[in-house]
Amino acid sequence: MVENKNLATKLDLAQSKLNIISENMDKQKNSDGTKRENMIKHFAAEKSLLEEKLKAANLEVKKSEHRLKNALIQLEDLQKGKGPTSQAEKTADYYTKQIEGFNARITEAGKELTDKKKEIHKLRSENTNLLTKVAELEKKLFSIDKKAA
Description:
There is one protein chain. The chain is mainly α. The chain has one domain (2-148). Helix content is 91%, strand content 0%. It contains two helices and no strands. Helix 1 runs antiparallel to helix 2. The protein is rod-shaped, with a radius of gyration of 35 Å. 3% of the residues are buried.
């Protein structure tokens, strides 16, 4: 009789410990899940921010290309003689100054274009890296959830 009570007490104690351990595991699982969800949300927000920056950079590149195209058209028009018609404007100095200005603009636009292309390439690689990290984290989360189940 005494042994049965002793064993029943030990059994109750073991049951309570088992309940406590399972509750702790559930809490741990929930906290890990929220951390991962927060990380995923953070990476998704960062990804959208980088995509917005990429769109803005692409827009700037297109604007620069358009300005460059217009400058080249004006330069071709001047070289073909479609420029101003008054005698004072047709002097060699006037054309020289205009061409120098156009060349300076073309050089500047080319530099801007190169910088923007570099920035776009950098942002695209960052975006790819972040997508890879998100995928890895999702795989880890899936494997942890699988192990917990």
